[in-house]
Amino acid sequence: MSKNTDQSFDTLMHKFAHNIYGSSKGKLRHELLVNNLWQYIKPEGEPLEIIDVGGGTGIMCKTLLELGHTLTFNDLSADAVTMAKQNLADYQNVTFHCGSLNALNDSKQFDMVICHAVLEWLSSPFDAITSLIDLVKPGGIISLSFFNKDAHRFGNLLYGNFDYVEADMKNKNTVRLNPNNALEPKQVLAHLEELPVNVLNTYGIRCFHDYLRDISKQTSEYEKIKAAEIKYGHLEPYKWLGKYFQVVIQC
């Protein structure tokens, strides 16, 4: 992966944090990801050595640190690393690494690799998956989540953005906070079938929240939406409609 073509959020981190985690979208995405990983990360188990690749603001690291795990935070963006250091200043068992995924290949292996909402920003996402596998101990876990191209297309058709869909959802002027390489879940799953891994679970993230006609219910009915997402997000056909798709893999 080239640092020149992969998306970095330098100069955009405060806007990113506000747009993503200052909304019910970001809150729900984070809570669903944690819920789907709970059997592996719950505090009753052995503490894990975990790396969060593309850790953004550090929100996932904070959750995992509070559960007693040891974390390595990684991000391509120096501004992200600075923000994460501020957000995680109260924790001792965390180290920070600024750089591309390739720069991690010579590092130690981990019990778990987290890579959430990163692949869609990379020039070579399938190569990145192979690099992530190299970071995991035998029997370890990878959690991938990525922006779902199928759901993105479906949502835009519902909104009546027909010309945008016809253009394969590519903007003439790149919006830097919009993913530039959304992925189709079935293509990712087909790729994983060719690798020495086992897919343990798949989930849709925000299968219903983003499609609500009355968007005020995204906040006023938040707990009910979350309950519905947990109940149906791992089931067909709903999981394929999640704005993000999560795959839990064992190496």
UniProtKB/TrEMBL annotation:
<protein>
    <recommendedName>
        <fullName>tRNA 5-carboxymethoxyuridine methyltransferase</fullName>
        <ecNumber>2.1.1.-</ecNumber>
    </recommendedName>
</protein>
<dbReference type="InterPro" id="IPR033664">
    <property type="entry name" value="Cmo5U_methylTrfase"/>
</dbReference>
<dbReference type="GO" id="GO:0008757">
    <property type="term" value="F:S-adenosylmethionine-dependent methyltransferase activity"/>
</dbReference>
<feature type="binding site">
    <location>
        <position position="29"/>
    </location>
    <ligand>
        <name>S-adenosyl-L-methionine</name>
    </ligand>
</feature>
<dbReference type="GO" id="GO:0032259">
    <property type="term" value="P:methylation"/>
</dbReference>
<keyword id="KW-0808">Transferase</keyword>
<comment type="similarity">
    <text>Belongs to the class I-like SAM-binding methyltransferase superfamily. CmoM family.</text>
</comment>
<keyword id="KW-0949">S-adenosyl-L-methionine</keyword>
<feature type="binding site">
    <location>
        <position position="116"/>
    </location>
    <ligand>
        <name>S-adenosyl-L-methionine</name>
    </ligand>
</feature>
<dbReference type="InterPro" id="IPR013216">
    <property type="entry name" value="Methyltransf_11"/>
</dbReference>
<dbReference type="GO" id="GO:0097697">
    <property type="term" value="F:tRNA (5-carboxymethoxyuridine(34)-5-O)-methyltransferase activity"/>
</dbReference>
<feature type="binding site">
    <location>
        <position position="75"/>
    </location>
    <ligand>
        <name>S-adenosyl-L-methionine</name>
    </ligand>
</feature>
<feature type="binding site">
    <location>
        <begin position="54"/>
        <end position="55"/>
    </location>
    <ligand>
        <name>S-adenosyl-L-methionine</name>
    </ligand>
</feature>
<comment type="function">
    <text>Catalyzes the methylation of 5-carboxymethoxyuridine (cmo5U) to form 5-methoxycarbonylmethoxyuridine (mcmo5U) at position 34 in tRNAs.</text>
</comment>
<keyword id="KW-0489">Methyltransferase</keyword>
<keyword id="KW-0819">tRNA processing</keyword>
<dbReference type="GO" id="GO:0006400">
    <property type="term" value="P:tRNA modification"/>
</dbReference>
<dbReference type="Pfam" id="PF08241">
    <property type="entry name" value="Methyltransf_11"/>
</dbReference>
<dbReference type="InterPro" id="IPR029063">
    <property type="entry name" value="SAM-dependent_MTases_sf"/>
</dbReference>
<feature type="domain" description="Methyltransferase type 11">
    <location>
        <begin position="51"/>
        <end position="143"/>
    </location>
</feature>
